[in-house]
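example protein:
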Amino acid sequence: IILHLDVLLIRLVMLCVCDLNSSGQMTDLLYTEKDLVTSLKDYIKAEENKLEQIKQWADKLDSLTLTATQDPEGFLGHPVNAFKLMKRLNTEWGNLESLVLRDTTDGFISNLTIQRQYFPTDEDQTGAAKALLRLQDTYRLDANTISTGNLPGKMKHKSHMTVEDCYELGKIAYTDVDYYHTELWMAQALKQLDEGEESTLDKVTVLDYLSYAIYQQGDLERALEYTKRLLELDPEHQRANGNLKYFQFQLEKQKKAEEDETGTQKDVSGHQIPERKKYEMLCRGEGIKLTPRRQSRLFCRYYNNNRNPRLLLAPIKQQDEWDRPYIVRYLDIISDKEIERIKHLAKPRLRRATVHDPQTGKLTTAQYRVSKSAWLTGYDDPMIETINQRIEDLTGLEMDTAEELQVANYGVGGQYEPHFDFGRKDEPDAFKELGTGNRIATWLFYMSDVAAGGATVFPDVGAAVWPQKGTAVFWYNLFASGEGDYSTRHAACPVLVGNKWVSNKWIHERGQEWRRPCGLNETE
């Protein structure tokens, strides 16, 4: 049993050194947790009489992991399941350790204690929690919807959050001085306690956080109301008694100030909607600006790119997605077999996404991208060269100077904030190391359907393109003059339910001199 557990824990070590935003690594963690539970059950058989509590724990997790591993990607596509996996491995397994240590046993505990440093960390658990909060904001989900698991989209593995789960989210928000989310999740924890859910937490603890979070947002009346409720449960609560007097004093002061105030309303008409708000609206399917007249000018067709020999007998289905910037989608452009091969090649190489630093021109870890990426070339598999040739046939652009095929996996809350693919005038060295000029165009394969969320949006023009497995979208980042098209600023919306696989090809200027001749007009 001990030798078997060593092997399992070494596997866990190898997995947890990677970032956990990819559904690929999260799937491996699920299998690892299932294996740990299996080993734990074997140990329990030898110590059954004195380890009854641990056996009950293992039975509960055995049922969960059995369901999860039957469809790991679907299970982890639900953000609550991913958060609870982080929480179990980071927090609850530690509680189990304390329980077993009371019996001073060997084998399992000694290995678990030594290897626990490789389990998901507090940072990983916090990251999973913040992913839930990010989804909550972007898609305007109330805490009860997330807690009950009733998220949009088709879900096989609905999961409920306990009072402890809600409290943990609220506490993480509190630590971040995010009192807005602290209130939402402490209120949800209180709601579930009021409804009779059994919990090791008491209402006094939750009310303490809740009242303070509401006070910090300036709502003294409600803060006072919850403080009074806390004192009904625990009249001797020292901090609550102090807060009661302070809130009453501040409330009187506030009311007096309001009576004397003769403030005027500010005119906020004509203000532009902030980019962040436009981005979130588009992610929810709101604010799309394509008028019926413009829609009538978008068409679909069979496309052979001016009678390209490879496309004459088998033209590709092409449809217009947007007019300005011009975005086209190619349907049935990559097969399921090719998708699975690309994913198989990419999974062992997935790393935290990087971007070009505009100041240095070098690759740096992206702070605004929550995904994992890998790079593939024709040397890795002849299929990649076939796919590159297909892109060249359809776009008419040279692929020898293009960047390698980048494969990205967006897991729980995975997103990419608004950005440009091309280098701007204030970033002259953006792609200097490549020596192939600026990024003239972007080709993006969608390698999975997404149950909810995950759109590619263009906030400046109000465009939204939704993932559709087996399709690809294409647009030019530069005008024919070489000037950047700033309307191509785009973002990847957070994945709400499911997981998202894409691969993209960034095509550069060098080699396109005869394929896309320069124009004199800066914006054409």
About this structure: The longest strand covers residues 500-508.
